[in-house]
């Protein structure tokens, strides 16, 4: 798990912000498809 920690520490806020946005977008797509 040290590799993941290093990646998070290296990218910092940029990685976390884009990651959260991507996760939310993917969840929205999955939910919309399941509802439709």
Automatic annotation (TrEMBL):
Q: Where are the transmembrane segments?
A: 12-31
Keywords linked to the UniProt accession: Membrane, Transmembrane, Transmembrane helix
Q: Does the keyword Transmembrane apply?
A: yes
Question: What name appears for this protein in its UniProt entry?
Answer: YjcZ family sporulation protein
Q: Which organism is it from?
A: Paenibacillus mellifer
